[in-house]
Amino acid sequence: MASLPHPLTTAACPPVADPAITEFHGDGVCIVLLPAAAYSVSGAADHHGIGLALARQTGVHRIGGERRRDFDTLPSTLAYTPAGMPMFSESPVGGEYLLLQWTPQAWAQWAGDIALPSGRPQAQGQRAAMRTAIAARRALLAGSMSAETSATLAAQWLAACVPALMQKAVRRDDAPLPQAAALLDYIEAHLDTSLPLSALAAQVGLPVVSFLRAFERRIGMTPHAYVMERRLQRARQLLRTSRQPLAWVAAECGFAHQSHMGSVFQRVLGMPPSRYRTDSTAPPISHPADKGSPSVSDQAFALYVDSRFTSPWAMSVFVALTEKGLPFTLHTVDLDANETKTPAFAKLSLTRRWCTAISC
C-alpha cells in the first residue's frame, strides 16, 4: 500500500532532514503518521481510510464532485474517505495527521455490514479517537509497532470513530466553542509564555467552567492537554531542525524547564528528547571536499510550476530559493494540456507533480 508522495522532488540534499512519513503495514491494514509538512496530492485511493488531525491544518481541497474550496481543519477532526473517491488536497504547511487505511477486502472483514454516510463524513471533538491516535503515534515513532499492536489499535480506532462518523457532523456555526480558530492562533502565538486558563477563557468571552467544557467538546482534549501537545509538537520540530541545547528548546516551547520537557516526552512518546533527536535527524551531510562534489550553493536549480502560479507550495519554494541566494530558472507547466503526463516531464519528476525542483 503506497504512502502519499512528497510533492517536491529535488536531487539536492536539503540541509535539514524533512520529517518522514512513518507507517506500519499489517494484514490489509496500514497505520500512517503524516508529518507537518507541505503537500499536494490528488487522485482516488484504492483503500478505505479514517484519519484524525493531530494538529490544525489549512489549505485547499476538492472532494468528489465538489468545487475546490479552502479548508481549516481543527485538531481531533475525524474524516472517512471511501475507496475510489477522487480527491485533491494541498497545504503549504500541512499538519500532523494519523491515518488508518484498509484494503477493500480487509475493510469488509473489519467493518462488516457497517454503512457509513455517503460522501466524506467528518466529526469533531473526538476524545476517544484522539487518545488512540496519540497511542498509535507513540508506537510508530518508538518503533514498537507490531502486528498485534496494530490489530489492537485498529479495533480501538473503529470502535471510537465509527459511532462518531455515523452521527451528523458538527457545523461550524453550531460549534460549542466560539472563535475557535482565533483562539488557536492566540495559543500558537503565545506558546512560549504562560497560558493560564483564565486568559484563554477571556479570549472567547466565556466563564472558565463553560470554557473548559466547550473547548474539550470542540478540540477533543482539555486546554492544558492541548497546550502541552502543541509544545510537544513544536519541540519535536526544533529537535529535528536545529542543534540548539535542550534547555533552549524547552524555553522556546514554553516548558517550565528542561526536565519538564523531558517528562512530557517520556510520558507521551515513551522516549527522552535526546533519543527523539537522534532517531529523527538525518546523518550530517558530508563536506563537499570529502567527495569532490559541488556544494548546494554552487548548484543551479530548475523550478517547474503551474502556469497559472496558483500553488502556495510553489511560492514557498520560490521564496526559499530566492532568500538563500540559490541560482535557479523558472519554467511553467500547462496543466490543461496535461504536460505533467508527458514522457519528457516524467524524466524530470518521478511523482509527476507540477511543483518540481531539480538540481542542474
In short:
With 360 residues, the protein is α+β, with helices and mostly antiparallel strands. The protein is 39% helix and 19% strand.
SS-derived structural category: alpha+beta
The CATH topology of the largest domain is given as Jelly Rolls
Strand content: 15-25%
Report the total helices: 13
Shape: globular
Helix content: 25-40%
Tell me which CATH architecture of the largest domain applies here: Sandwich
In the CATH hierarchy, what is the class of the largest domain? Mainly Beta
- Tell me the Rg in angstroms: 21 Å
What is the overall pLDDT average?
A: 80
Strand neighbour order, sheet with most strands? 1-2-9-4-7-10
What are the low-pLDDT stretches, counting only 5+ consecutive residues below 50? 1-18, 169-174, 282-298
The CATH fourth-level homologous superfamily of the largest domain: Regulatory protein AraC
Cα end-to-end separation: 32 Å
Model description:
With 360 residues, the chain is of the alpha+beta class. It has three domains: 22-173, Regulatory protein AraC (Jelly Rolls); 221-280, Orthogonal Bundle (Arc Repressor Mutant, subunit A); 297-359, Glutaredoxin. It contains 13 helices and 13 strands. The strands form three sheets. It has a six-stranded antiparallel β-sheet. The protein has a four-stranded antiparallel β-sheet with strand order 3-8-5-6, with no helix packed on it. The model is unreliable at 1-18, 169-174 and 282-298 (pLDDT under 50).
